Amino acid sequence: MAAERIAIFDTTLRDGEQSPGCSMNREEKLQMARQLEALGVDVIEAGFPVASDDDFAGVQAVARTCRKPVIAALCRAMPKDITRAWEALKEAARPRIHTFLATSDLHLTHKLQKTRAEGLAMVREGVRLARSLTEDVEFSAEDATRSDWAYLVEVFGIAIEEGAGVLNVPDTVGYTVPEEYARLIQYLKEKVPGIDKVTLSVHCHNDLGLAVANSLAAVGAGARQVECTINGIGERAGNAALEEVVMALSVRRDALPFETGIRKELIFRTSQALANITGIEVQPNKAIVGRNAFAHESGIHQHGMLSHRSTYEIMTPESVGVRRSHLVLGKHSGRHALGKRFEELGWELNKADLDKAYKLFTKLSEQKKEIFDEDLITIVRDGLTVIPEIFKLRSLQATAGTAMFATALVTLATEDGEHSETAMGDGPVNAVFGAIDKLTGLKGKLMEYRLHSITGGADAVGEVFVQVDFEGAITNGKGASTDVVEASARAYLNASNKLCFARRSTPALAAEGN
Ligand code: KIV
Ligand code: ZN
After folding, report:
1. Does an H or E element contain 269, and which?
2. Which numbered atom of ligand 1 lies nearest the CA of 74?
3. What's the angle, vertex CA 427, arms to CA 421 and CA 430, rounded to 5?
């Protein structure tokens, strides 16, 4: 008998994007949405259109581009939110309005200043309006797990009467535990009239580290849609991690006889794409996608692995797209071999990108004898940036020492030629940033600076992540090089270019100085 299908509703671009440091501009959202579509998610929740013009534009761009999955937009159960969500979604091939209202007394009283009866009326009007705009409507009872169960039955009954096809039972504050959550799902299935006609969905936060366990318990009890995010990003401690939910269902099919439409071999690449876009690295011991998830350190484990892999391995790294690191190419490798290796790593580059990648590869191979898969991934992640380089780094020179001020001379290329500036600073990186600011005309304040080496050895590639406050506009940037000062300059320029690009494509932002 075919296993029942669990719909994977990805909210990386909405709930995930709400987590600190994870905000994405429109281009980045689009890049991530394409990756999610390739991964095979059933639903992409693209944003919360009423929240800002940027959010609206992000949802609209995803709706126009990704034609296979359902594209959802979140909105409170309020007319202006719902119509704004629909405006952003209406060109989607498969639009879904996702409307919500808090149902716990705590939220109703203190956040919304509404009575339970007023809440019911809002659900009725909200779902009715959404349903008048499109057929596919999801209703979420925010803080469901701290709501009165009998009241939830009333709320969901009304949502069904008004035509919602998906009912979501969020554990908004990550409070529930697996058995209790499963009981709630069973209770709703028994008590809500007409519930057998709709899909029950779960949305779990990870405040107690139980988001995945709770989601799986709910699936066991009858939920057929799981809302989750890549790398588990999301409000506070995050949401249920998509990769963990999907792999638990896959590896333990004996205990959980369900399937998903996810292309598991693209999981690692998707996780890396998100880390690259947001600059939030995956913790090393993170299940499925962490750097150590398939590393075996102790002698006993290594011995076991060599005798029989399944002694310590419940799934292969290859099954989620992780390849064992090995030396791949040297400076005499040709473009064809490079393209082939990228393909094996899961990146299909078009001719223009392959040309660009090849140039970066030959430059890197002059600086570094051994090129590893990780180096190639960095080339694609950082070299083939989707942000146009309004300012290009031509050269830099920095001097520093214990008994002198650091100085830097930086040359950038722009549309109208090359320009150079010098600056002094507390250290070479600071001096370089000062020179770049003089050249771009921006005023940046460094909020965060992180450096890590991507590969081992003295000639390792260093990757720098910066978060810069450009007079109120917080922007992330990344850059990589075997020289850390150059990597820093590239990261800072990446942030500057992002800001200039956003201002050019959204003139209102430039006018507001945002
Ligand atoms: O956590 C939550 O309750 C949500 C809803 C708006 C779905 O994100
Ligand atoms: Zn949430």
Report:
1. helix 267-278
2. 6
3. 50
Burial of 265 (0-12, 13-18, 19+ CB in 10 A): middle
Please give the C-alpha separations between residue 366 and each of 177, 187, 359, 486, in angstroms, as whole numbers.
55, 65, 11, 16
DSSP string of 359-406, one letter each residue: HHHHHHHHH-S-EEHHHHHHIIIIIT-SS--SSEEEEEEEEEETTEEE
Q: Which residues pair with 8 in a beta bridge?
A: 226
Residue nearest to atom 2 of ligand 1 (CA): 172
How far apart are the CA of 12 and the centre of ligand 2, in A? Answer: 10
- Tens of pLDDT along 19-38? 877 888 888 899 999 999 99
Q: Write out pLDDT tens, residues 127-169.
A: 999 999 999 999 999 999 999 999 999 999 999 999 999 999 9
Ligand 2 is an ion; its neighbours by CB within 5 Å are: 15
Any ligand 1 atom below 6 A from CB of 15 = yes
- Domain-wise residue ranges, the chain: 4-278, 295-322, 325-383, 392-513
pTM: 0.77
Instruction: Establish whether residue 178 lines the binding site of ligand 1, counting it when its CB lies within 6 angstroms of any ligand atom.
Output: no
Dist CA 384 CA 387 (whole Å): 9
Neighbours of 230 (CB within 10 A): 29
pLDDT recorded at residue 508: 35
Superfamily of domain 4-278: Aldolase class I (3.20.20.70)
Does any ligand 1 atom lie closer than 6 A to the CB of residue 170?
yes
Helices vs. strands in the chain: H and E counts, helices first: 17, 18
CA 15 to ligand 1: nearest atom: 8
Superfamily of domain 392-513: Alpha-isopropylmalate synthase LeuA, regulatory domain (3.30.160.270)
* φ, ψ of residue 398 in degrees (nearest 5): -135, 140
